[in-house]
Amino acid sequence: MFKIARANAAVPLTPGSFDDANQNHEMLAQFSVSEAWTGDLSIGMLRLGEWSAMLHGLAALESGLLSLIRCYDTKDRSHILELFEQAATLCSSFCFSTTIIMPNGFRQPLFCMGESNGLEQKYSGSMVGVFIFPRFKLEGAKQISSRR
């Protein structure tokens, strides 16, 4: 899944959407780990949390986009790079899903949602988003199968 949409601040938020009582943090935590990330387009760097950096195989919390996506499934990399490039040129909301291929062969599913803003000046702007890591790893494609 690779989606991008023009950000539209004129669209009102659903009443109560930020009301913490409407959130189910326990269920989200039971099935996934989530962590926020930010991007500074003026220097071309993304800042990750510790969990995200570790799962992406990065030694530092700051990374360039190419270093970040190096561990993603090869068939998804060009789509994700294109999505980030589009978001860097137009205020957008975006999401994607892929799989992190770890050096030990495990495969960690990943969902990402984010938005870009402040792109009025050339070489400026920022991104903010969240990575969601389901609480399981895949051991090769054979683990996913359909029942007959």
Structure, explained:
By secondary structure, this protein is an alpha+beta fold. It is built from four helices and eight strands, in the order βαββαβααββββ. It has helices at 25-31, 50-55, 65-69, 74-87, and strands at residues 2-6, 32-40, 45-47, 62-63, 92-101, 106-117, 126-134, 138-139. Strands 1, 2, 3, 4, 5, 6, 7 and 8 form an eight-stranded antiparallel beta sheet that branches. β2 (32-40) and β3 (45-47) form a beta hairpin.
Summarize the structure.
This protein has 148 residues and is an alpha+beta fold. It has four helices and eight strands; from the N terminus they run βαββαβααββββ.
Essential attributes:
35% strand, eight-stranded antiparallel beta sheet, globular, disordered C terminus, 4 helices, alpha+beta
List the topology elements:
Layout: E1 2-6, H1 25-31, E2 32-40, E3 45-47, H2 50-55, E4 62-63, H3 65-69, H4 74-87, E5 92-101, E6 106-117, E7 126-134, E8 138-139
Antiparallel strand pairs: 1-5, 2-3, 2-7, 3-4, 5-6, 6-7, 6-8
Radius of gyration: 16 Å
> Low-confidence spans: pLDDT under 50, at least 5 residues?
10-14, 141-148
Multimeric state: single chain
Determine the strand fraction and express it as a percent band. Answer: 35-45%
Portion in helices: 10-25%
Q: How many strands, what sense, and barrel or not for the largest sheet?
A: 8 strands, antiparallel
Helices, by number, come to: 4
Shape annotation: globular
Structural category: alpha+beta
Mean pLDDT: 82
